Fold each of these.
Amino acid sequence: NAGVTQTPKFQVLKTGQSMTLQCAQDMNHNSMYWYRQDPGMGLRLIYYSASEGTTDKGEVPNGYNVSRLNKREFSLRLESAAPSQTSVYFCASSEPRQLEGLFFGSGTQLSVL
Amino acid sequence: QKEVEQNSGPLSVPEGAIASLNCTYSDRGSQSFFWYRQYSGKSPELIMFIYSNGDKEDGRFTAQLNKASQYVSLLIRDSQPSDSATYLCAVLSGGYNKLIFGAGTRLAVHP
């Protein structure tokens, strides 16, 4: 069981470039999430998808878009990367209402120069 | 005021001692509380969750919840060097279907 798989693990972009972070889960969870983690600020929610076909903004959605492609896959797109988006990005999944918490992917270290 | 607050640490304890990690939260309607452990360069992994006031034990770990005082704590008994990590407190707020994380407390267990 792979759990939650994220790609790529590392990425360097130039300001203004675009990219998509991919996430897939094989736990049959309905809900999926994208977080960013910055030093001293903890994990902040970017977007989430409570179920297939729905997406909602989290705490820091500006500069990002998401697509819930199917129940397994939830992608995060940066249309025009900015240095402020340098961060570690985590995808996570859970059952509805997160009664047993989130299960995280291994993360993507993104640097925007 | 941050929604979920933790002392950033580092909290340094000797091997074999009890490590006590604390977390306070602002939303009185919060229903569920979680502790995650995160090793450097790795993703968070769930240690425990607690819903009801009181203590919940799992091996060397005990989570304590006091909703009236709006705090949740994690005790680690017989601390080991392998417990050295950042511990994240997360709270499921009453009005939202998402977890709010604290910034984490770094724990260092020295031999």
Amino acid sequence: QITLTQQAESLWISPGERVSITCRASQSLLYTDGKHYLSWYQQRPGQTTKALIYHASVRTDGVPTRFIGSGSGTEFTLSIEHVQPEDFAIYYCLQTLKSPYTFGAGTKLELK
Amino acid sequence: QVQLKESGPGLVQPSQTLSLTCTVSGFSLTSYHVSWVRQPPGKGLEWMGVIWTGGSTAYNSLLKSRLSISRDISKSQVFLKMNSLQTEDTATYYCARVDYSSYFDYWGQGVMVTVSS
């Protein structure tokens, strides 16, 4: 199965700063259609899990432009520019290239 | 609008079978796949399995021997059954819709299941 590694368990940042969360796959997530099957999710207490990015770089409807997905092959990054108070949450990557689908272990953004 | 809502018992005894229901609205189970995901307390997300629009299924290999996912299209419900529960199966269980671009675009609120005698 494909393993996703999110190295940072926690990242401490201040509001207004820029942060990058990385996700490394054990094999390429590029499919023959030219798209990467890697998506990003946000979990906040008391709220439903929210999809932020799919195909590595496409924002879902309504997601603020400060959320930026990038990367290719096996290395992916979720960047948040000018972090807002509501962005302090846990972020997960997910690969849906091959079954079994797999999540990264999650990265928690914490207030410095 | 699109909604998913999980339901089931909050407490299950060890060695027993867990039965959960995901009731969906705003879309058809013949148009979208639905996945189950779980999250032990304080831990990360674990993909459990999926039921495709055609009715076939795929499972996490670690759970495959204990897990079954099925559906009732007329009732817009997806079912999860997992047997031989252990304390390690204590978790919040979520169902999620799989978008055509193969990401989980809508999630339920989750149902907390505790395995304990």
Amino acid sequence: GENVEQHPSTLSVQEGDSAVIKCTYSDSASNYFPWYKQELGKGPQLIIDIRSNVGEKKDQRIAVTLNKTAKHFSLHITETQPEDSAVYFCAAPRGGGTSYGKLTFGQGTILTVHP
Amino acid sequence: SAVISQKPSRDICQRGTSLTIQCQVDSQVTMMFWYRQQPGQSLTLIATANQGSEATYESGFVIDKFPISRPNLTFSTLTVSNMSPEDSSIYLCSVGLQGGEKLFFGSGTQLSVL
């Protein structure tokens, strides 16, 4: 099965700085990589995802990059704001290929943005 | 996406008892899943809730401990049976949309077992 490693486990930045979270995966057949944001007391929220046929995807202040050769993908948040403070999870398809809802999650990164 | 409602949102239970968690979706979905998030940990897939047939469990999870029902395409229940403190977790209902590729979560049920 897929194995996903996520770093760092905690990340503290000043408001306006950029934040980068990295994940590596083990199954070269995996072709879909989502990122989730979880606020306290809430379920994970899908914030951005990328398929293996592209190297980068952006959505306003959030971007995801994918390096298939190295089997890693990263979340980039620019111009961070206090409301970006949350736990972020990366994920990859549990059995490789397409997820069909079955994901293996990274260990999570606690992001704190200081005003 | 879809609106996914879970009940209860939280509960405190005594060891040895059982709790049934309900999940209601505002549209018909083919793929529905249950995940567990232990305190301060990541998410782990428990099972796929199959409509009209038995759920498909992942390694480490069994039907006797986590029976699941899926009577229709908008509703599912997860029961945590014969609870112990190790079952204290957040239990999350989720649905796969857009061909099943994108996974969306409910708000979760925070369970504490004393």
Amino acid sequence: TQLLEQSPQFLSIQEGENLTVYCNSSSVFSSLQWYRQEPGEGPVLLVTVVTGGEVKKLKRLTFQFGDARKDSSLHITAAQTGDTGLYLCAGFGGSNYKLTFGKGTLLTVNP
Amino acid sequence: GAVVSQHPSRVICKSGTSVKIECRSLDFQATTMFWYRQFPKQSLMLMATSNEGSKATYEQGVEKDKFLINHASLTLSTLTVTSAHPEDSSFYICSARGGGATYNSPLHFGNGTRLTVT
């Protein structure tokens, strides 16, 4: 079973601060995805990283895939209250291309 | 973009009854569908993977006789929670993927079903 450890589990910051969320595994993933989920809704895909060492930017969000494709990070610059939500990393792997989710990081950005 | 519709969005049932949740791909053929369960403020736990026309593959610890999954067509998969009990109360989410899947293929998620068993 491929496991993804996500940290921190909870994060409460002030608007304007920067933050980083980490996603680590002992397994190699073919690709890794980051999602954001709001209460009562399904997850929404933010990005997919495929190549080891890859860095992708989505406005104030920067995603990095580790060289060994075992870990990833999400960095948010100048957080806004609208960034509040549950951030999930998920890795693709296995014969059925299953998506395995990390435990999630519940981010609260206070005004 | 691809749309997955999940129904109902909320359901309340009495203990001992069965509840069926539907997951439909509206504008693509979903060869594979995944069912997840999510507790409040926690991550998604994969329950089972279903491929159209074949039996679902359940994750370890998930009772296949309690959570019946049917994927009879390329646009519809159903999850039936049989003889529901209060501990089955949770948020159930489906996701779907089209054919020709690779490790980069996107999954399309439904908006989830909030099940409350009283």
